[in-house]
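Work Package 3 (structural annotation) set out to generate three-dimensional models for the target panel prioritized at the project kickoff. During this period the team completed the workflow that converts sequence records into discrete structure tokens, so that structures can be stored uniformly alongside our sequence database. As a representative example, we reproduce one entry of 323 residues exactly as it appears in the project archive.
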Amino acid sequence: MTEYVALSEIDSAIRRTRDLLWPFRKGIWLRIALIALFIGWGGAGFPQPTWSSDSDFPSDAFTGFSTPGALPDMAGLIIAVFLLIIALALLYMLIGSIFQFVFVDCIRMRNVKIRDYFSPRAGKGIRLFLFQIGIAVLFLLLLAALIIPFIILARGFAFPAAVSLLLFLPVLIILAIIVGIIQVITIDFVVPIMIQKDCGVIDGWKEFYSIISTQWMQGIIYLIVRFLAALGAGVVMILLTLLALGIVAIPFLVVGFILYAAMPMANISILLPLLIPYLIIAIPVVLLISVPFVTFFRTYSLAVLGRLDSGYALLPEEEEATG
């Protein structure tokens, strides 16, 4: 009977994760939490205001922009802010790409020291960053090439916009799944191959293909198990995060209630300053919650890769790891 390494290495990855993180050592947890900030398990959404009608705007809302030079000045400011956001997002992605290699080094060496690995891995991180940008651009171009003719065709048949979007949704889902699989394989397997073989992303992909081409069912099982494990871990993380955020919020809610009770006529906006210290505490707490999860998945992928090809067994022998 065929042994599927994606199933057999789960227990090993759990043990290795436990041995690295327990007993609790503050420095290790904080450094992995910092890595988690850049490589995943985070996100934020900001609600956008919606206006139901023109009456929602005060009649003099744009009085200050009536002068001839105001609109160009405002447009310049908007463009500058937009470019700044893009630059910060790209910088975040670049650091995250480097941290993917740093994290592999931390796990395989059992030495969680970010500064020791960051500079030596910067070059490979930049290559990974450019590869991911290229994949994103290719995805957008392919999406545009598919959706533009589809929209033209839909208009020819006078389809409503909602129906057109619904018909195109399966194509979008398929493309998203393909990009997701490429991302998972690149991070889980190509990154450690690049470290071991000292090569670029494309050569890493070629090497991975040579490994998986003779055991493709192992790859399919891995992707399925990886998806189900990530789904389960995501649910657990959400529950733990909500619980932690609720506990952290208790003292701030008490203070807010006292302030509002003492000044009942004051605007509720006086409570907004409490949000800043709450976030300062809540964000690190959420990242610390993610530490066992990101450590497990990184360890798990390295363990599977080592079983697929012994030449890429980057993890130490388990006897050494648990000793």
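Residues 42-66, 319-323 have pLDDT under 50 and may be disordered.
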